[in-house]
Amino acid sequence: MKKISTVAISLTLGLTFLLTGCASSTTANKTSAENKPAESTTTSQTAQPAPKVIKDWKYYSADQVKEAIDKKSPLQIVDIQVEAEYKAHHIKGVIPTYAYPVKTDEEKEKLAKILPQLKASKDPIVIVCPAGKGGAERTYQYLYDQGIDEARLFTLEKGQSGWPYSELLEK
Q: Which range is the signal sequence, renumbered to this chain (predicted)?
C-alpha cells in the first residue's frame, strides 16, 4: 500500500510540474507584439487551427492514367518537371508548371498561376514530377493548402521516370 501511495504522489507531482512548467514557459515566451491589444475590432480573436499536414498520399498508376487518357475521362495532369526535362519528354495533354522542386516561393508562384484552372473543375488532379516523390508531395500539400479538395489529389506513381508508354509522350 505504501508503494502505491508513493507512486501516486510521484505521478501527481510530476504532472503538476510538467503542466505548470509548460504554462509558464508559454506565457514567458510571448513577444511584446503578442501582448499588445488588437488594433482592429473586425479581426477574430479565436485561434486558427493548424493546417493539416498530408502524410497519406494517394497515387494513380501509369496504367490508370493511360486508361483515363485512352477513355478521355476527365482528368487534370499537372506536370511540375523543370522546363528542360519537360521539353525532353512529357505526357501529352499535361498542364506544364516548371515548378519542381516546389520549395521556394517563386516555385510555388508557378503553381499559383494554374490554381484558377484547377479550381474551375471538380476533376481528379494527377501530379507528375520527375520521380513521384518529394516534389509531388510538396505540390500535393500546396494545392491542398490553397483549397483544392484532397479527394481530387493524386501523384503519378514513380513520376515521369516511371512512365512506360512512349506513345503518349511528347518530345
A: 1-28
Rg value, the chain, Cα: 24
Between vectors from CA 42 to CA 36 and to CA 45, what angle results, nearest 5°? Answer: 55
Rounded distance between C-alpha atoms, residue 15 and residue 116, angstroms: 50
Which residue from 92, 85, 68, 104 is spatially nearest to 167, judged by alpha carbons? 92
* Cα atoms found within 13 Å of the Cα of residue 170, Cβ hemisphere only: 10
List pLDDT tens digits, range 124-151: 999 999 998 999 999 999 999 999 999 9
Reported pTM: 0.70
In the numeric block, which cell numbers belong to residue 52? 493539416
Q: Quick: pLDDT tens for 31-49.
A: 434 444 444 444 445 666 6
- Give the helix, strand, coil percentages of the chain, each rounded to 5: 45, 10, 40
Among 171, 142, 169, 140, smallest CA distance to 156 is for 140
**The one-letter amino acid at 155:** T
Domain ranges of the chain: 2-30, 59-170
Task: Give the whole-angstrom CA distance, residue 92 versus residue 106.
Answer: 26
